[in-house]
Amino acid sequence: MDKLSNTSNKNNSRFIITIIMAIILISIAAWAAIQSVSGVNNTSSNSNPAAGNDLTAAPASTPGITQAPESISSNGQVDMEKLASDILSKTKFETELKQIDKTVAEGLISISDGSEMQLYMGNGNYSDELILITAKDKESAEADQETVVQYLKDMRKSFEAYIPEQAKKISDAFNMRSGCYVVVCVTNDTKTAKEIIMAAFE
Fold first, then answer.
1. Residue 28: its pLDDT value, please?
2. CA 119, CA 52: separation in Å to the nearest integer?
3. pLDDT for 12
4. Nearest CA to 174 among 201, 161, 192?
5. Residues 6+ apart with CB under 8 A from 78
6. How far is CA 108 from CA 3, 101, 113, in A?
7. Rg (Cα) of the chain, in Å, rounded?
8. To 10 degrees, what angle do helices 138-162 and 2-44 make?
9. Are 170 and 156 within 8 A, CB to CB?
10. In sequence order, what DSSP letters do the residues of 107-166 get, joined into one string?
11. Torsion sign (Cα): 78, 84, 90, 92
């Protein structure tokens, strides 16, 4: 009887663990769907033109987004592949970031038509991310940046629910736009990331 009882208890434990894992997976899938819907709604509601070539941060009213200097402008084309490589190799992240497939990335962050995005993410237990967007024009870049701001807000709310320390990292994210480029980096090593990004646009 003891053996039968132990076997039953083990089966019950496995069943409970399976249920918990299923709930977690469903929660993650729902979160991803919310990101996609929020991105679409946000992109469609943004039609204000971007002002000049100045490098600007997300709206100052957005809590926790780093305010970048507004007097620095890009001298022309920026090699976003090289910029991504420099950030990934020189900035400290808590998890290894890997580039996300284009279709999956655009399902998470709905960018403007004609915009190209590189999205790097790591282990789901960490909020570290790198987002680089090259838009077709300044107006699209401004809309894309606002979409990313909403994406960060939603992601922060999600992490606040189960890993609060990772939520603060999102609040301190470096988020900037210069002309048709948008670069966002979520890391504890914001200082290094900012220096690399700002240097690329001088």
1. 61
2. 26
3. 61
4. 192
5. 178, 181, 200, 201
6. 49, 11, 15
7. 20
8. 150
9. yes
10. HHS-PPTT-EEEEEE--TT---EEEEEE-SSHHHHHHHHHHHHHHHHHHHHHHHHH-HHH
11. positive
Residue with tokens 């083990």: 10
CA-based nearest residue to 38, from 27, 48, 49, 46: 46
The whole-chain average pLDDT of the chain stands at 77
In this structure, what token pair is assigned to residue 69? 């200097």
Q: Write down the residue that tokens 């992601």 correspond to.
A: 155
Q: Look-up: residue for tokens 């000049």? A: 52
pLDDT in tens, 135-190: 999 999 999 999 999 999 999 999 998 899 899 999 889 999 998 999 999 999 99
pLDDT for residue 54 is more than 60: no
- Within 13 Å and on the Cβ side, how many CA atoms surround 50? 27
CA triplet 25, 28, 32: central angle to 5 degrees? 140
Amino acid identity, position 1: M
Nearest to 113 by CA among 77, 131, 140, 80: 140
**Residues 6+ positions from 134 with CB-CB distance below 8 Å:** 80, 115, 116, 117, 180, 181
The Cα–Cα gap between 163 and 42 comes to: 26
